[in-house]
Specification:
The complex is a heterodimer of chains A (317) and B (300).
Chain A (H helix, E strand, L loop, with lengths): L1 E3 L18 E3 L2 E3 L3 E3 L6 H4 L10 E3 L16 E4 L2 E4 L8 H12 L5 E6 L4 H12 L5 E5 L16 H14 L4 E4 L7 H10 L4 E4 L3 E4 L1 E2 L4 E2 L5 E5 L4 H12 L6 E3 L6 H10 L3 E4 L1 H5 L3 H16 L4 H5 L4
Parallel strand pairs in A: 4-5, 4-17, 5-8, 8-9, 9-10, 10-11, 11-16, 16-17
Antiparallel strand pairs in A: 1-2, 2-3, 6-7, 7-15, 12-15, 13-14
Helix pairs in contact in A: 3-4, 4-5, 6-7, 7-9
Chain B lengths: L7 E13 L2 E7 L12 E5 L9 E9 L2 E7 L3 H8 L5 E5 L8 H8 L6 E7 L4 H17 L20 H4 L2 E8 L6 H5 L4 E6 L6 E2 L2 H7 L6 E5 L2 H14 L3 E4 L15 E4 L10 E4 L6 E3 L3 E2 L3
Parallel strand pairs in B: 7-8, 7-11, 8-9, 9-10, 11-12
Antiparallel strand pairs in B: 1-2, 1-6, 2-5, 3-4, 3-6, 4-5, 12-15, 13-14, 13-16
Helix pairs in contact in B: 2-3
The chains are: A alpha/beta (317), B alpha/beta (300).
Chain lengths: 317, 300
């Protein structure tokens, strides 16, 4: 299921140096392990700052069956070493996405992983069904977003519900399925085990941590939605710990994310057991962060004698 | 945009001084020429203290001789830190972001007889972007007429400053409002035929708000450009819509990235020719911050 390329000579590798950055997850080979975290990448906007072909894969904003307006503003607040967002998964709906955005994304050599959101099991399944008929490379199921006000507890916070939704989308999908887990749980390894048991092809973690900020002078929450998802460097130790725990609980590939701001941060995730990493908040702070972090990762590997990603993953003592 | 590739630049601070209570003017070295910047655009400033990770969006006040002038208000810890940076320090600054005012549209209308008087309506921190806007409009007016300069006073370096506005039958008026302390009015006078000042407490100029002053001044404009607090923008936009006068407004919203990726700063826009939906959600940072005033759906 996971295979790191160990410097076989073939097209697609970084020919200008001895490094091999390729990684294959669920049968899909990425040129390099750098991807964009869902909700922080937009082809047109991000593409103004760097060549999208530089990325291993793009993971799109959450796409739902019907268009969603998201939350009223303010949707963004700063936190110490991070930020809170309560965008509420504003998106044009799966039909508009397939028609207007997917063809452009597929014009790059970068792999396309479409993030799917929903409020009910049926909504997830119907969106997955439509995306199965496209040339998307993989789907990532967001079962964790704490922003949506409907339904109370999120799918990903309950073992039985996480298992159920995994089973349902796997039955329908013709694409490899990544389940994106919420960190707002007591035992992340348990959730990881059940989604693996139900056939998930991989796991992404972590989504944002549920947080809140109060303006003490206005005496009210800063975000309209009151609560929002905490991301950025402040959450990195939590993310590294959870990637480490999940790596030891399951065999399927792990996409690690949460506060990666530098190439060295990325290395930490690989050592914890990630196969692929995603850049999120860093790209909002610095639009060129994904390509910078990739460059820094290459520099780290060169300076420290690593030839491929598997060597980094095996390095932790 | 040519010359400087979009991204973040390391820039030297040339000046950073207080010009009013809580109001500071920062001048930066900027390698991009003024032709690369549209009035109404903004830049992101990045703080040295990495615990404050989000950039601070600040509107562009003026671009001249490879110098970028920004005027900001100290409203929290981030802007407080900004105010402590000294000349000679370097600061990380984005290339210009957002869509500015549509000066081309105004230039086109100025070419016709029916658009004679342009009014810049601004309140508080909405005033700074009016400087670069007034300069651009002055150039547009100079460019749309054959009216000569008063012969004895041609400004060789900046001929648009001495074009005979009266002979051109065009007028540029600024109506600016403040809580109490007035700033940047002298700078505006450089480009405008007249600058009318209002203060909420009557400490200087007209005692009242911008719209009241516009009405008191005899409803002078046949094209309005506005920037300032939302209630003011809404009032001026409503006034213009009622009179069927074109208006462009610059909106403000809490931003994350500033370049359209995070979708944090949205506003509701009802496009004139769109009859299908009640409104569309647009990004203030990327689609705006300047929109047609008659297309904004104002939330209460």
């Amino acid at each position: 299921m996971i295979s790191f390329h160990k410097n076989q000579k073939s097209a697609g590798s970084n020919a200008d140096c001895d490094l091999d950055l390729r990684v294959t997850i669920a049968g899909v080979t990425l040129d390099n392990p750098v991807t964009t975290a869902s909700g922080t990448f937009s082809a047109k906007e991000s593409g103004a700052f760097y060549d999208i072909n530089e990325l291993g894969a793009v993971i799109t904003k959450g796409v739902s069956l019907e268009p969603w307006d998201g939350n009223p503003t303010p949707r963004i607040a700063e936190a110490y070493g991070g930020m809170l967002n309560a965008v509420g998964l504003q998106n044009p709906g799966v039909d508009a996405f397939i028609r207007d955005e997917l063809p452009y994304l597929k014009s790059f050599k970068t792999k396309v992983i479409v993030n799917v959101a929903g409020k009910t099991k049926d909504e997830y399944c119907r969106a997955v069904e439509k995306l199965s008929e496209t040339d998307a490379d993989m789907l990532e199921i967001n079962i964790s977003c704490p922003n949506i006000k409907e339904g109370g507890i999120s799918f990903g916070a309950d073992t039985a519900m996480a298992a159920d939704i995994t089973k349902a989308v796997k039955r329908i999908s013709t694409k490899p399925i990544l389940m994106k887990l919420t960190p707002n749980v007591t035992d992340i390894a348990e959730i990881a085990r059940v989604v693996e048991a139900e056939g998930a092809d991989g796991i992404s973690l972590i989504n944002t941590l549920l947080g809140m900020k109060i303006d003490i002078y206005k005496k009210k929450p800063v975000l309209w939605n009151r609560m929002g998802g905490l991301s950025g460097p402040v959450v990195k130790p939590v993310a590294v710990r959870m990637v480490y725990q999940v790596r030891r609980a399951v065999k399927i590939p792990v996409i690690g994310l949460g506060g990666i701001m530098t190439g060295e941060d990325a290395v930490e995730f690989f050592m914890a057991g990630a196969d692929v990493i995603s850049i999120g908040t860093a790209a909002l702070v610095d639009p060129q962060a994904p390509v910078r972090i990739k460059r820094e990762l290459i520099d780290f590997m060169k300076n420290n004698g690593y030839k491929n990603l598997q060597e980094i993953r095996d390095a932790l003592l | 945009m040519t010359g400087v590739a979009p991204g973040i630049l390391e820039s030297k601070i040339l000046g950073n001084e207080q010009i009013a209570r809580e109001i500071y003017r920062m001048t930066l070295e900027y390698e991009g020429g003024e032709n690369e910047i549209k009035p109404g655009q903004f830049v992101n400033l990045y703080l040295n203290d990495k615990s404050m990770i989000l950039p601070r969006p600040v509107s562009i006040c003026k671009v001249e001789n490879n110098r970028l002038t920004l005027v900001y208000r100290v409203v929290g810890k981030g802007t407080e830190a900004l105010s402590s940076y000294a000349p000679g320090d370097s600061i990380r600054v984005s290339t210009p972001l957002g869509n500015g005012y549509d000066v081309t549209d105004i230039a086109r209308r100025l070419g016709t007889e029916c658009t004679k008087t342009i009014v810049l309506a601004a309140g508080g921190l909405g005033v700074p972007p009016m400087i670069e806007l007034a300069k651009s409009l002055r150039k547009a007016i100079a460019g749309t007429t054959d009216i000569p300069h008063a012969a004895d006073s041609v400004n060789e370096a900046a001929p648009f400053l001495t074009v005979d506005m009266a002979a051109a039958n065009k007028k540029l008026i600024a109506v600016i409002g403040f809580q109490d302390e007035v700033f940047l009015s002298e700078e505006l006078e450089q480009y405008c035929d007249s600058v009318l000042v209002a203060t909420d407490n009557g400490s200087r100029g007209f005692h009242g708000n911008v719209l009241e002053l516009i009405k008191t001044a005899g409803d002078p404009g046949d094209y309005y450009l506005a920037c300032g607090p939302k209630p003011m923008l809404k009032a001026v936009a409503d006034y213009c819509v009622e009179k069927d006068i074109p208006i462009q407004v610059s909106l403000e919203e809490r931003m994350g990235c500033g370049y359209g990726a995070c979708v944090g700063c949205t506003c509701k826009i009802k496009e004139e020719n769109d009859t299908e939906v009640p409104f569309k959600l647009k990004k203030v940072c990327k689609d705006g911050p300047v929109f047609r005033g008659n297309e904004v759906v104002w939330d209460d």
